[in-house]
């Protein structure tokens, strides 16, 4: 959108399936007006094919204006595509409760279909920005080491390892992390309560500590 010329050489298409976010995007983009910005409110997994006159898909955008008029139409291929697909990472599943009700098991197929819309050319690039892919790849690596062929078909050894990992998380890791945060908060309370009001004011005014290093910071657990 920001170019040295008055008219950018290529369009920018932004899409969101949510009506409210789409209107917000249009409102915010008014601050930086562009002749080549198009905002759509469509399902990205079934994005319609945009047909343009033949020749507009050329990489040499400077020569587009010199192309002869043609009645032949061809699908518009994007140079770059950034897919911010719905995420099903740990924090999303905990914070966005409605994702269980609205998407359910269909979330996986949606996350897979969006990058496969084939709107990019052969020499183009599509970036899928989602933690979901990282979880899938990590789980694939872990499962290939837990469920081994020499343990098939009952996978007793692999299941014992999984039960052990779950037990470690429930009875050691989670209680240990909570106990650590409680200990850190109590230690800072002792230091903070031992200070006078003048010392507290001086600390707040002169300290170079930031974030969780500050004495007045308390961990939420």
TrEMBL record:
Keywords: Membrane, Transmembrane, Transmembrane helix. One of its GO terms (biological process) is tRNA methylation. The chain crosses the membrane at residues 161-183. One of its GO terms (molecular function) is tRNA binding. GO terms for cellular component: cytoplasm; nucleus. SUPFAM superfamilies: S-adenosyl-L-methionine-dependent methyltransferases. InterPro entries: MeTrfase_RsmB-F_NOP2_cat, RCMT, RsmB/NOL1/NOP2-like_CS, SAM-dependent_MTases_sf. Residues 10-100 form the SAM-dependent methyltransferase RsmB-F/NOP2-type catalytic core domain. Gene3D superfamilies: Vaccinia Virus protein VP39. PANTHER family: NCL1 YEAST -RELATED NOL1/NOP2/FMU SUN DOMAIN-CONTAINING (PTHR22808), RNA CYTOSINE-C(5)-METHYLTRANSFERASE NSUN2-RELATED (PTHR22808:SF1). This is SAM-dependent methyltransferase RsmB-F/NOP2-type catalytic core domain-containing protein. It comes from Candolleomyces eurysporus.
């Amino acid at each position: 959108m920001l170019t040295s010329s008055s008219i950018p050489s290529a369009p920018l298409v932004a899409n969101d399936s949510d009506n409210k976010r789409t209107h917000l995007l249009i409102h915010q983009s008014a601050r930086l007006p562009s002749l080549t910005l198009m905002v759509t409110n469509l399902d990205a997994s079934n994005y319609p094919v945009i047909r343009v006159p033949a020749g507009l898909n050329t990489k040499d955008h400077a020569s587009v204006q010199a192309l002869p008029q043609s009645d032949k139409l061809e699908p518009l291929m994007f140079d770059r595509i950034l897919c911010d697909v719905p995420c099903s990472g740990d924090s999303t599943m905990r914070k966005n409760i409605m994702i269980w009700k609205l998407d359910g098991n269909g979330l996986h197929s949606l996350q897979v279909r969006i990058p496969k819309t084939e709107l990019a050319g052969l020499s183009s690039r599509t970036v899928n920005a989602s933690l979901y892919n990282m979880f899938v790849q990590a789980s694939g690596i872990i499962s290939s080491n837990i469920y081994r062929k020499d343990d098939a078909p009952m996978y007793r050894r692999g299941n014992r390892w999984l039960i052990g990992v779950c037990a470690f998380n429930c009875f050691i890791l989670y209680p240990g992390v909570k106990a650590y945060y409680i200990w850190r908060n109590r230690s800072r309370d002792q230091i903070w309560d031992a200070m006078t009001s003048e010392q507290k004011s001086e600390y707040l005014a002169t300290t170079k500590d930031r974030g969780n290093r500050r004495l007045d910071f308390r961990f939420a657990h």
